[in-house]
Amino acid sequence: MLIFTYPPQLARFMLKRAAVTGLGVTSLPNYVCKSELKSGELVRVLTQYLPQAANLSLLMPSRLGVPAQIKAFANFIRERLPYVMS
User: Fold this and answer.
1) Per-residue pLDDT tens for 33-63?
2) Helices (H), 7-60
3) 84 — pLDDT class (breaks 50, 70, 90)
4) Which residues contact 41 (CB under 8 A, 6 or more apart)?
5) Helices 8-20 + 30-39 axis angle, to 10
6) What does each C-alpha distance from 72 to 69, 81, 82 come to in angstroms?
7) Is 63 helix (H, G, I), strand (E, B) or coil?
8) Does residue 86 have a pLDDT over 60?
9) pLDDT at 15 > cutoff 80
10) Contact 71, 64 (CB under 8 A)
């Protein structure tokens, strides 16, 4: 048996392309297929089904002495993630 592993971004892309070309049904986050839903290339099915929520954590060893780049990244995630996920 052959087992292939792909990075998550590639796997999502392949699942989305398969659904767009009519090969089946998939469950993807809104931000992955937002434009395809808007254009009508993809349509929602099983609208009563809601996937489970996921949590995202940003772990830092301490709030003291955190480099400016890490603070900027954390602020970027806090500000942009709600927009990207909608």
Assistant:
1) 899 999 999 999 988 877 777 677 777 777 7
2) 8-20, 30-39
3) low
4) 20
5) 20
6) 5, 14, 17
7) coil
8) no
9) yes
10) no
Burial 45-76 (b: 16+ CB within 10 A, else e): eeeeeeeeeeeeeeeeeeeeeeeeeeeeeeee
Mean pLDDT, rounded, for 52-78: 80
Structure tokens at 59: 């772990």
What ranges do the domains of the chain cover?
A: 1-49, 56-86
Amino acid at 56: L
Q: What percent of the chain has pLDDT over 90?
A: 21
**Rounded to 5 degrees, what are φ and ψ at 80?**
-90, -25
